[in-house]
User: Fold these one by one.
Assistant:
Number 1:
Amino acid sequence: MDILIVTDAWHPQVNGVVRTLVSVIGEFEKRGHKVRTVTPSDYLSVPMPTYPEIRLSLAASRSMRKLLAEAAPDVVHIATEGPLGLAARKACLQLGWQFSTSYHTRFPEYLNARIPVPVEWTYAFLRRFHNAGTGCLVATQSMADELRKKGFANLVAWTRGVDHELFNPAHRRKNPGTEGPYAGLEPPIFLNVGRIATEKNIDTFLELDLPGTKVVVGDGPDLPRLKAKYPDAVFPGVHKGVSLAEHYANADVFVFPSLTDTFGNVILEALSSGLPVVGFPVPGPIDILTDPAVGVVDPDLRRAALSALDLDREAARSHALGYSWEACADILLSVLQTNQLRPAQKSA
């Protein structure tokens, strides 16, 4: 099958959307499918206000329609609701093509945290955007249930996967306090990993009265402010590959304070590393941390973090093994197969 994916989120961005798309595309290609992408690198773009790491493409629906018509794929998936996604949606509707979409982020709440735009307005826009497609893939069942109550249709729960070989308890040192990434730091280590931005609610984590050391791995626009405000916390910057895996495996508890993520790929990375996870009772944590032996979901994040110190690291690893990128790819593929364009449609 010839698959075309349109996404506003792509390299060099480092986030769950990019990680998911790259992993799923890899699975598709292993199975012999042809995958092409339309990304910000294909158009002129400008930095997003307040978040220059994200580029906003200057895409016109006319040029997008020409691009899609010339590409003539079997299926189209629109992964994001940004400028490229909007242009692709309009082009597909003009061509009479079916398409699927995916909902990755609580964008209404994210936008409201930066600009005072009522969340109801943004949800109305997103509802119109996604309901035009034949299927909207959502990271968790709880998020699908929430969106359905807001009038979203054709919702499909779309799980995520994790690289079990990379994120592995084998990276844990015998004496994490004297060797490895946390050598010299006071234990226990409470860890957070991800993009350091306002919507991630990292302040709530760093304000907790906890023993030991709080560590935040990553980068983002909120990093300078957090470093100045919380001098006792440790900010080692961005880590990838084995270095990131070592940070997970040698920590004691992973704290996920976000209220706006729809899943949280980092939760699976932590669990796969044998690291217990705590979070608020919101979509993502409540869907993944279904076994009390591997994590704690509690509105009192301090209480959750302290109780997680006694959880079984082997249980966390076993729980994560139930998630795979193969299963994630299967779900998207099943949706795409229902949207295959007939020759007459492709020549529209």
Number 2:
Amino acid sequence: MAEHADHPAYPVGLRLSGRRVVVVGGGQVAQRRLPTLIAAGADITLVSPSATPAVEAMADAGEIRWERRRYQDGDLADTWYALIASDDDAANDAASAEAERTRTWCVRSDNADVATAWTPATGRSEGVTVAVLSTDAQGRDPRHSAAVRDAIVEGLRDGTLAAPHHRTRPAPGVSLVGGGPGDPDLITVRGRRLLAEADVVIADRLGPRDLLDELPPHVQVIDASKIPYGRFMAQEAINQALIEHARAGKAVVRLKGGDPFVFGRGMEEAQALAAEGIPCTVVPGISSSISVPGAAGIPVTHRGVAHEFTVVSGHVAPDDERSLVDWEAIARLRGTLVLLMAVDKIGAIAKALVAHGKSPDTPVALVQEGTTAAQRRVDATLATVAERAAAEDVRPPAVIVIGDVVAVGTGAAPRPAE
């Protein structure tokens, strides 16, 4: 076998769709590499007497063919690309030798020095594939390649890295982006990228405000709470602002706290845009109903404690004729109750739950400014929560959790059933 270690690898993209690929070995390496080969459309044959459950599932699903045996000479016939990744050194050497004879590009997971091909650290973002290979044959460091890959992909995803004269121009329209519960790191990758590409951002008060400081100077940032309402109601004024900026050919992001469709009135905005024929993209966000309790150490479900959780808007009191909540039915549930927008109504809500049969000793936690540096947690029971919220001056935004899961982290909750 000829030595080529003194020269750097020649980078190339293989088009494997419909072409035969052989993988020798069904262990962890195959488990990591097979999904990408499947996505490339390769005609894959796995040769291995055993496989991990994940690899076996790929075979059961018909994504690969599995020859349940050891490698045999001739297995690489008519093969375009081979991945040698078994724990049998003799089989790996024999398969590698066959690949050399048949001029089949071959990756060796156990010995890169004798391979004819190396697998780069790869990542993808919006139609771009990034592949990083070390150029130093004597000092290859896969961890360094992966770190470089991650930095490039992250820059492409969040918009901080792009060729100045070839930056993709987003199409005019509106993106309804869920910004998450408050911590700027909890917005989705797609949401952050759309922010970086926006011409206009119309932001809620509860959106992740720190992200607005990252926007380029040319981006127009509009505080939704300060839009002049005139003859419009607040939501109608926001809808109109979205429509006007989109019609002007701008890429508009409507940055909302949490998820756009969890008490965020996102569907009202989407419907208004659809009525005007304006393209609308919905980017889901991490809802505060789950993330804020989690950040405070409270699981909304827990084995043996709660098998369901219910999220309720508390902006309307139980005795208000506008309320759509069946509080009597809610009180009968045994799981977790999560209240949003309920700080000023918690006294009335607690009273209604107890009146409908909920124990006054049911644990309650109020988590203010969840996931941010100002986060704080106040614990109480249904009997004491109104007094505690007032004494501790709990203010919006706060998520209120009611149920035995509140005490799980303190050791006071029932032990999970085995």
Number 3:
Amino acid sequence: MQNIVVITGASSGFGALAARALATAGHVVYAGMRDIGSRNAAQADAAKTFANDNSVDLHPLEMDVSSQTSVDSAIGTIIENHRHLDVVIHNAGHMVFGPLEAFTPEQLAELYDVNVLSTQRVNRAALPHLRAQKKGLILWVGSTSTRGGTPPYLGPYFAAKAGMDSLAVTYAAELSRWGIETSIVVPGAFTSGTNHFAHAGHPEDQTRAEEYAHGPYKGIEEDILKGFTRLSPPDADVAEVAKAIVAVVDAPFGKRPFRVHIDPSQDGAEVVNAVADRIRIEFLRNIGLADLLTPAGA
């Protein structure tokens, strides 16, 4: 079944790969990215070229998830073109790397905005349409860092992804009676195939950062990256994340998994999430809200 899909943060990484994979699978895909006329012009052109070369429906869409006006306009364009929207994929995000103390509070707020508040902007724009349809899918691209192995120097990013995961879990219960399904795709740390580490932000307070760099934590940044590489199997393929997203979207309504892990290094998140998700199910049943576990109309 063909779906109308919008995915945020689709200029590179998981987003770009998933957008192409979904379009190849036969869906109409809007690849949200900011500044498609300037900063991301090359990425937008690459998406158009892929669409033309493969005869698929892949459309770069101007969407700055830090702006409610931009998000509203993007969703409005999709609704104007198709009169409906089936799948919203929350993928936009940004990583930072460095000692937590050296990040300013303003930097943490900015990271939280990109990784968490952006999803609220998109939901507020898209959910009225999905609720009116009484059917849809919200798919969240999370991270094993929320409950798996959490090395130091990635604290702001981990905290933001945990916040996003918490929103996803609550939204799942609050949307099911509207016939809207929730799935969370949980990638592990891929050290190649994306630009997450290459494009990671750094602390603004360089004085504090230098104190760590020349103190007892000297060299730990290299140790962390080497450790990630050592844990990651040589055949780890970031394209598996895109394949998992396609599999969720293609699954029958009401049968989609609540959470899917793609973690070649097996950092433990799947084990911890299994417990947390089981408790979620048991708790909703115990308080008489078991119907919230399945989307209405399934």
